[in-house]
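Re: folding output
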Amino acid sequence: MKISVVIPVYNERATLLQVIERVLAAPYDLELLCVDDGSSDGSREVLAELGQRFSQVRAFTQPQNMGKGAALRRGIQEATGDFVIVQDADLEYDPADYGALLDPLIQGKADVVYGSRFLGGRPHRVLYFWHSIGNRVLTLISNCLTDINLTDMETCYKAFRREVIQSIKLEEDRFGFEPEITVKVAKRRLRIYEVGISYWGRTYEEGKKIGWKDGFRALWCLLKYSVTEKSVRATRGPS
């Protein structure tokens, strides 16, 4: 069993080495698909060095800053593992949670697994109240439009059977990836699981990038793909 971990990178030199070391510490046969999205802080050079140092690291570069969604699309296209996990390049999400994410996939019970920051008793750093409200409102709207009962649509941690995620046409270039993939997964009637994860959120001073404008874009994406995406039946894995 091989796991493809897709890591979009934009100006994350301060945390990049530590994140990759944590991912590599996970007890799986891994490939790390790191896509630099036009970084200007030396992240690209760090990635090139890490690619030489670790055989599991495959580094790719975007011609310019195109956005998280575009970087994920590139990495997902290059994936060769049985399962694909999305991993941010900061320290907000802990690769120690991979076991929980992968378990429903390995057991053949799920096609897609979301790691929820609002489920279970895992530790969470206490940060922005209005961010949590915004996340919950977007998740509620997403659930109303898709008729699924997620608790954390905007989570970074999402895991897929590779053939499932590679069969879905992804269009969003920036932070619209989360609502887009949620609608498209729901439209395919795929088996979706949620598991509780830990979360160590960053402040804006520490490098957090997402803002209120991205919340409005997420809402637009939910509405857009709910209307334009047709319901289809995707091939499921063994039950």
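--- second protein (sequence, then structure) ---
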Amino acid sequence: MALTRAEKQTELATLESELRAAQSAILLDFKGLNVPQVTELRRQVRAAKGRYRVVKNTLVKRALQGTPFAPLSDQCAGATALAYTGGDPVALAKVLTTFIKTAPALSIKAAVVQGKAIRAAEVTDLASLPGKAELYGKLLFVLQAPMVQLVSVLNATPRDFVSVLAAVEKQKQGE
């Protein structure tokens, strides 16, 4: 069923507002996927706090104008889907690259991550990075390490002193 002009304008405004809030966007060629595969892909992308939309190329090109994702408009040809997120770009890349392994019909055309255009091969490199939660954990460990070392150094003197006293007491009891 064809969309009316008002529906197209509403869809364009919605897409533009969602893209303004997004940090990364990935263009995909979904030709060859069946409905259950697309449904599963949408579910996985939603779990990564992202969105997956199949939109007409002209609508995508208009929505991308004036955004950091404008370099993607050159790749809008053929069967094109758009996956984007305002959250962790690594999580979205991991979901898509994992899904591509099970459904090789899906392929990545191009991507923009935090304002920088990257090639399709670089999306797989992005997916191999640790996610935000893991990076926060590593950062917390690094920040906490000097304090833990300081506390252990400060506790070493009284602990050693007590062990020397215990050894002296044991020696005197033995005599």
